[in-house]
Amino acid sequence: MAEFPIDLKQFKKLSLDPHNPTLTAEQKADLQANIQLLRDAIVVFTATGAARGGAYDTVPEVCILLALFEHSKDFYPVVFDEAGHRVATQYILATLEGSLPAEHLLHYREANSKLPGHPELGLTPGVKFSSGRLGHMWPLVNGVALANRDKTVFCLGSDGSQQEGNDAEAARLAVAQGLNVKLLIDDNDVTIAGHPSQYLPGYDVTNTLAGHGLKVVTVQGEDLDELWGGISAIVTHNGPAAVIAKRVMAPGIPDIEGSSHGHDVIPIKAAVKYLEKRGLSNFSSIYDNIKPVPNPYIYSGSTKEVGANRVIFGEAVNMVLDTLSKEEAAKKVMVIDSDLEGSTGLKVIHQKHPEVFVPSGIMERGNFSAAAGFGFAPDKFGVFSTFSAFLEMVVSEITMARLNNCNVLSHFSHSGGVNNMYADNGLSDVQSFLYFPADPAQMVAIVKRVFFERGLRFIFSTRSKVPWILKPDGKTRFFEDDYEFVPGKDDLILEGKAGYVVSFGEMLYRSLDAVLRCREQGLDVGLVNKPCLNVVDEQMTRKIGTSPFVLVVESFNQKTGLGSKYGTWLLERQLTPKYGYMGTTKEGCGGLWEQIPYQNLDPQSIIVKIKQLSQ
């Protein structure tokens, strides 16, 4: 294991008394040294994640909190943070307390390193909480304060996390109950998609929290005297209070200062410039031997070329919009973003069709309902997109849209291992459609076919790119040329007599590889693609249900995914083949492609299951 290039033993324990709001020269010098030490360390190890795939801004607040914890047991000694992407803070703290060796930080976000991109309680030694989704920590911290009335509880926040509705509810409870919750808000006017001051004019964290009734002190976050004075003021105040620390993002880091590029891992080029400026250029060599780990497995039945379905979604929407005049498009369609346009495919729509685009903040519930409200009239259509992990947040809003017969096309990217089937939460007398395209060509076919369908439609995609599925000739792309997508109909990829595998999305090409290898071994297995997840294709179900076995392979949560339903569908039709299903069963391992074998969803694991069912 490589030696960590920053000596964290140089961190000096300080004790600061909040009743003394002015730092002495010695305290300030020691605090500055600690801040620089931890910032250097964060730059060094988060850039290793960029070499394979932050927390820099709030280091001053963290160092001050450690000094307060050192001063008195009146403070709950956990640095809660509702911005999970600042997980580097928690890893530094775990290292300082001796729970993690410093050298292990160089494996940040590497597969099986137990250093994922968000803090996970019980996984990483020394990590004291799970952050969950952005803006979800403060309500939990309120509960910690209710359970520890004799303690002051701190929570780091941001101008991004404060956009979530959870925080408005948390503010009201904290004020009503007089909780000793103290917020330290990093207000750098930068989120993933841009600057809140531009896409949410009128939004102001200071005014928002003050309006809820908190005591609020606004300071310049890089001025230690101001920052300490503000923290002293809120700590000695009885009741909920907040310091709003104004600063540019990633202060002092070349190339990324003031931009969203400092939001997570720090690019290697920027890290090297920073280290050289700090006189630490000999450290930059640690990145030379850190390379992305390619997947050594070669899949059969699909192209070597891969495409990003999450990006293709936006391109496919543009194909639809291109058929309308600008005026007609603006009148008929509204596309709303939740600060993720670059990640969920909406950026290309923003660029090509700004007339339909509404940039918005980290407010998934409200944004979904806005899309639904736009689609309240029969001839208007709202488009909404975010990560699949946030689908659970908008279940109530989905119900509201369904009750009002709204037209919404939702794209949930970064799918896999989550409860996407929750979107189909209506009764049997209404119909929603859940689509998961297998490759870029099918994504285009689905978007073009269902865009102007009435009601609620949900399209899923993954973060990782996928290849194009090939026909049995090994050359022709299955979902191009004469392919026509029909909602509710399954695709017969390969006919088989021994039994059938049913799959969809990014698991189809993996299942195809497994099926082809079984066929090479004399086991005549068939394969069906089920792009519409929640509608029974009666003809196809009866066809495969009369075969010897059916195996559902998916990356969704095995407890709530397609496999948990498909067996029931078979039994309801008096179809009784041998039945099995495979899906995600445990928390992830980090990395990228490594997730699939970690969940036992790789082709070899599928082959083992096929052979078990065929016996």
Could you describe the 3D structure shown?
It contains 21 helices and 18 strands. Helix content is 35%, strand content 15%. It has 615 residues and is an alpha/beta fold.
Average pLDDT level: 95
Record field, number of beta strands: 18
Largest sheet: 6 strands, parallel
- What is the structural class? alpha/beta
Helix content: 25-40%
What is the straight-line distance between the termini? 46 Å
Organism: Psilocybe cubensis (Psychedelic mushroom)
Protein name: Transketolase
What are the SSEs and their pairings?
Layout: H1 25-52, H2 59-71, E1 80-81, H3 87-96, H4 137-147, E2 153-158, H5 165-177, E3 181-187, H6 196-199, H7 205-212, E4 215-220, H8 224-235, E5 241-246, H9 268-277, E6 302-307, H10 309-321, H11 326-332, E7 333-336, H12 341-344, H13 347-352, E8 357-358, H14 364-374, E9 381-387, H15 395-403, E10 408-413, E11 433-435, H16 440-450, E12 456-460, E13 466-469, E14 491-494, E15 499-503, H17 508-520, E16 525-529, H18 538-545, E17 549-557, H19 563-572, E18 578-584, H20 595-598, H21 603-614
Parallel strand pairs: 1-2, 2-3, 3-5, 4-5, 7-8, 7-9, 9-10, 10-12, 11-12, 15-16, 15-17, 17-18
Antiparallel strand pairs: 6-13, 14-16
Helix pairs in contact: 1-2, 1-9, 4-5, 10-16, 14-15, 17-21
Nutshell version of this structure?
It is built from 21 helices and 18 strands.
Write out key terms for the chains shown.
615 residues, 5-stranded parallel sheet, alpha/beta, globular, 6-stranded parallel sheet, 21 helices, 15% strand
